[in-house]
Specification:
six-stranded mixed barrel, globular, mainly beta, five-stranded mixed beta sheet, 379 residues, Cathepsin D, subunit A, domain 1, 2 domains
Length: 379
């Protein structure tokens, strides 16, 4: 999902609470305690979660299911949230969670600084999250900071966050002022950036960052290459796409991942934006890049010398993305896949190029929340 960053005028796409899970363990090593008695220490086994893979024939989506928030069992038709590497934090429509009398076009109404409804703590802290590919396509989502126990996943596999901060929204409005239908912006942002920072200093970020993977594992996740064979119109559940908890082997130089440390921006956290040079149609330019599951079917190249109007690259145009930290990615546009727009970064208001979900079909992705680094791997 394309989210608007306020930091440095960048425009891009799109604690720690205990998670309850049944994690199996395996033997690590045997040591000697102070008493001289041999004791066995264990390391946790990484936790696997699946995703639903949907294809409308126009665009693909990766979907995370949220089956319960507070004491509310979410209706099946509203459980799907876009799995989004381009934003950080859970954003969910309040219409299933609150009485209709509490939700107006002007806000969520209640007295006091906070209230608890259906096991959900709603605060008076309000904000707006903005999504868009450039300055001309900004959608705005309005809501409140809330906290609740949240079940991530369903009967196929799940974890429970006991108290997750999230953005509970009451309306979403397009760049043209049109109000979107309910649940159109339900998003599960997994990056380590702060989607929203509130006036009290609180923020929301990746729900996975609140997950303690257990002894011997590093806080973070990796994502397998998803391929193309599992996408269906109704959404096909694919187990084990996400691995929560990183091992020493995952983070080693021999893992095959190219790692890049992420920069911290005050109020925005560690956005997964990395430097690269992009070549297309005989032109090469330097840019910042974000690999975004929430953007599909188009990628957006922000060329400082590109056309002032958004321009679709011709079919059979080769595009390469080369990074100084040792990761290269290449694709060729077709009539239906790897569709790519190019525009002038000065006129668009963005210096960040967005690489769409197509990247994730054949490449692996990792976020290390402890060391604040992004890992990419050609598959």
């Amino acid at each position: 999902m394309t989210r608007i960053h306020t930091i440095k005028s960048l425009l891009v796409i799109s604690g720690s609470f205990l998670l309850l899970l049944a994690a199996s363990c395996k033997k690590d090593k045997v040591g000697t305690g102070i008493s001289g008695v041999k004791t066995t220490s264990t390391i946790a086994t990484p936790t696997k979660l699946g995703l639903y893979e949907a294809d409308s024939s126009i665009y693909k989506e990766l979907i995370t299911v949220i089956s319960k928030i507070g004491t509310v069992n979410i209706p099946v038709n509203n459980q799907a949230l876009i799995f989004d590497t381009g934003s950080g934090g859970m954003v969910y429509d309040g219409s299933d969670l609150l009485p209709a009398s509490m939700i107006t076009t002007a806000g969520i109404t209640f007295t006091g600084d906070s209230t608890i409804v259906n096991g959900i703590t709603i605060t008076k802290q309000t904000s707006i999250v903005q999504y868009g590919a450039d300055a001309n396509t900004i959608d705005k989502v309005y809501g409140n900071l809330a906290y609740a126990p949240v079940t991530i996943g369903d009967a196929n596999g799940n974890i429970v966050v006991k108290r997750l901060p999230f953005f509970l929204y009451y309306k979403a409005v397009s760049a043209k002022g049109v109000t979107y239908p309910k649940h159109d912006f339900d998003t599960f942002g997994v990056s380590e950036e702060y989607d929203i920072t509130f006036s009290n200093g609180e923020h929301i970020t990746s729900p996975f960052s609140y997950f303690d993977p257990g002894v011997g594992l590093t806080r973070g996740f990796k994502m397998a290459a998803i391929g193309i064979s599992n996408f269906t119109l109704r959404g096909n559940y694919v187990p084990g796409v996400i691995t929560l908890g990183l091992t020493a082997a995952d983070l080693s130089a021999s893992s095959g991942f190219a790692f890049k440390s992420l920069s911290f921006f005050a109020g925005d956290g560690y956005a997964p934006i990395v430097p690269a040079s992009i070549t297309y149609s005989g032109k090469t330019f330097s840019t910042q890049v974000i690999y975004d599951t929430g953007t599909e079917p188009y990628s957006y190249l922000q060329d400082p010398n590109g056309p002032t109007a958004l321009t679709l690259l011709p079919v059979s145009t080769p595009v390469t993305v080369a990074a100084t930290y040792g990761f290269n990615y290449a694709f060729t546009t077709t009539a239906t896949e790897n569709l790519t727009y190019v525009e002038n970064s000065k006129s668009s208001g963005s210096t960040v190029s967005i690489i769409s979900l197509e990247f994730f079909l054949n490449n692996e992705y990792m976020l290390d929340f402890t060391n604040h680094q992004l890992g990419l791997k050609n598959n």
